[in-house]
Amino acid sequence: MKADEIDKNFASDKEFGDETVIGYQLPCAPFSMYGVFYDDKEKRFMRIPKTVAENTSEGCVVLMRHTSGGRIKFSTDSDTISIKATYDYIFEMSHMPMTGSVGFSLIDETDGCELVYAFRPEQSDKTGFTASAPALKKGVRNYVLYMPLYNDVISLAIGLKKGSFLGEGKPYKNIKPVLYYGSSITQGGCASRPDNSYPAIVSKWTDTDFINMGLSGNAKAESAIVGYLSSLACSVFVCDYDHNAPDKAYLEKTHLPLYLTFRAAQPDVPIVFLTKPDPERDKNAVKRRQVIRATYDYAVNRGDKNVYFIDGSTFFGRKDREICTVDGTHPNELGFYKMAKAVYKILSRIFDN
Questions:
Q1: Across all residues in the chain, what is the average pLDDT?
Q2: Domain range for residue 9?
Q3: Kindly report the CA angle at 105 between 76 and 131, in degrees rounded to 5?
């Protein structure tokens, strides 16, 4: 099937200013979308329904628009791939590259996972940008476009050469997505590319879909978000919100109820409990860890065989811990790689069983 034969309504040369390129405004077939949805009423890509976000927190209302974990899969033999993205704003941070916070990563997964291009705006591009990845490998290739970790995306168009093949891409394994809930670390701060958060790395290694519910500074297990998490179809639930609980007392108040609510809704889904990776920066970290461990022990003692516990203090190891983060807290690529290895070890056991 030729790209310009699929749906004439989505074709637009003007999107890219090149008469040899045909543009597709997403979402549209045959592109496959994961980790986000397009809200026709809000007219943007979102991770969380607005009603859920409004009943959770003001911060969640902002973060529901951040596209962390959003992916677009497709296959094509086009020798160039372009994107045009529009935003409300560019979410610039002093400790995170714009390639990760605002940019898109194009990955070729035909023969493994190979970075093709890191689409990124310039600092002068305040409400979006257009960019192209030229000189691609010949033949039909399977691509994944990872969306920004810390930015809204109002619209996204993908441009391909006219007359090129277009397909839906390589599907994930026939397993429900892995669901992650946690802090800014879970959301992906401060990876240099959207495909280098630890949930994304684990997804690459296991060839499974995932849902990123990392809510930077706002993962506090409120009843609205816990109810929403419990309603999502998933193969595994990774619970990682230690960092955002204000103190030990708050963690005690919310952690066990989160487990009980989720388990009541999904009695057979494995749950992986994580603690923070930087305990040396919190004098109460050991007590907080004990709270999370107590939830795990409670589950085991009541006969729950589908719970797992990872001590986050072991993620970075003892040697060279200081080179695993950008600021002592938020992981860099090495830190995320080490986190991914620990989570992958558990998920591999789960999937093997």
A1: 94
A2: 3-167
A3: 75
